[in-house]
Amino acid sequence: MELKGKRIAILAEDTYQELELWYPLLRMREAGAEVQVIGTGSAETYGSKHGYPVTVNGAADEVRAEDFDAVVIPGGYAPDRMRRYPALLDFVREMDAQGKVVAAICHAGWVLVSAGILKDRRATCFFAIKDDLVNAGATYVDAEVVQDGNLITSRTPDDLPAFCRTIIAALK
């Protein structure tokens, strides 16, 4: 139980990518962490790109960065919705400011862009949003996982094993 006592928030919104939410959620629980699914506040249950539901434990405006050790942001099309909620962006920004693990995969880089936390940092993402990260001040690296301090990013579901190993290592 390498993450016993750690608390992790996984963000959710409609059209999330199934594997990018469920794989980290189950892997972090398997490692002993307490995992909470946090939504934007627009619903209590969100559907994935293929309709698979996830029920949230709370909304972004109800949680505080002080209560978590990490936040995981899955991709899919959900990040384009997530970035429209100031409370969610404030939560991610505060997690970063406190030096907590901020982990984003695939299109979740959009949330990092909107939170304004990429300037002068190394990161990766799904190739289609590479320009967005670069324009936000990041140095793009095409690798399965990129860690820059507390920031951990990956590209696609194929990278999930490395992504989760890196999150767990950062939290130990």
How would you portray this structure in words?
By secondary structure, the protein is an alpha/beta fold. It has one domain: Class I glutamine amidotransferase (GATase) domain (Rossmann fold, 3-Layer(aba) Sandwich). A 7-stranded mixed β-sheet has the order 5-2-1-6-7-11-10, sandwiched between helices. The protein has a two-stranded antiparallel ribbon with strand order 3-4. The relative contact order is 0.17. The model has no long low-confidence stretch (mean pLDDT 98).
Indicate the CATH class: Alpha Beta
The largest sheet has its strands arranged as: 5-2-1-6-7-11-10
Query: What gyration radius follows from the Cα positions, in whole Å?
Result: 14 Å
Number of strands: 11
Structural shape: globular
Strand residue content: 15-25%
Number of individual domains: 1
Order of helices and strands: EHEEEEEHHEHEHEEEH
Residue-averaged pLDDT: 98
CATH architecture: 3-Layer(aba) Sandwich
User: Could you say what the CATH topology is called?
Assistant: Rossmann fold
* Biggest sheet character: 7 strands, mixed
What proportion of the residues is helical, as a percent range? 25-40%
Going by CATH, the homologous superfamily would be Class I glutamine amidotransferase (GATase) domain
The class by helix and strand makeup works out as alpha/beta
